[in-house]
Amino acid sequence: PTATYLKRFADMRGIPMEGVSLAADRGHLWRATAYRQTCWLIADEKRLNLRLRREDGNSFGEAKELVQRGSHASTPLGWHEVIRYESILLVEGSMDFVAAHAVVTEDCAVVGVTGAGNSLPNELIRNTKGKPVVIIPHLGDKKDVGIHAAIRWRRQLNKRCSKVVILHLRS
Predict the structure, then answer these.
(1) What is the SS3 string spanning the chain?
(2) Which of 12, 18, 96, 126 would be 91's cystine partner, CB 3.0–4.6 Å?
(3) Which residue has the higher pLDDT, 162 or 142?
(4) Cα distance between residue 83 and residue 61, in whole Å
(5) Distance between CA atoms of 112 and 57, rounded to whole angstroms?
(6) Averaged pLDDT of the chain
(7) pLDDT at 71
(8) How far are the Cα atoms of 45, 97, 102, 166 from residue 24, in angstroms, in the given order?
(9) Residue 165 and residue 171: Cα distance in Å, rounded?
(10) What is the pTM of this model?
């Protein structure tokens, strides 16, 4: 996407332009037409998990986000990249995945798990060996589902990573 479209996305979502640009540079943010709508496509590097958000900010009926037919919805965004980076920031959700790019350094991978019920793939866990991981859970629900998911992911990662920290930001 052009700088103009990235700026529009950044402004609409309230994400710093640097984060949106880095997500696009890493191949995670695209523009596409789907269901007769201009959309933002948020994807993992290998395009296994393709998530669509309408560019105008409206929903697709009841859904604010659609998973492209044929996608693997449980595949974490960015997980194929962890082997190339020194550290990892793990978040839940596609928009948090894009936003997280605004707070990482060039040597940090961003991984976005696209649902609290999803587990981390074994290959991802193997590729985190010796690397520090910070998990920022989703806090938008009333039942602490995001916190419970973060604790489960920390347990999965603890055997491989040098350090796993959950950063819990309650408002």
Answers:
(1) CCHHHHHHHHHHHCCCHHHHHHHHHCCCEEEEEECCEEEEEEECCCCCCEEEEECCCCCECCECCEECCCCCCCCCECHHHHHHCCEEEEEECHHHHHHHCCCCCCCEEEEEECCCCCCCCHHHHHHCCCCEEEEECCCCCCCCHHHHHHHHHHHHHHCCCCEEEECCCCC
(2) 96
(3) 162
(4) 38
(5) 20
(6) 90
(7) 86
(8) 11, 12, 12, 26
(9) 19
(10) 0.91
User: In whole angstroms, how far apart are CA 49 and each of 35, 113, 116?
Assistant: 17, 10, 16
Do strands 50-54 and 66-67 pair parallel, antiparallel, or not at all (unpaired)? antiparallel
Interval 100-124: pLDDT, tens: 999 999 999 999 999 889 999 999 9
Give the residues across from 109 on adjacent strands: 88
Angstrom distance (rounded) from CA 12 to CA 21: 14
Judge whether residue 171 has pLDDT over 60.
no
Q: What is the CB neighbour count within 10 angstroms for residue 48?
A: 17
CA–CA gap between residue 77 and residue 43 (Å, rounded):
6
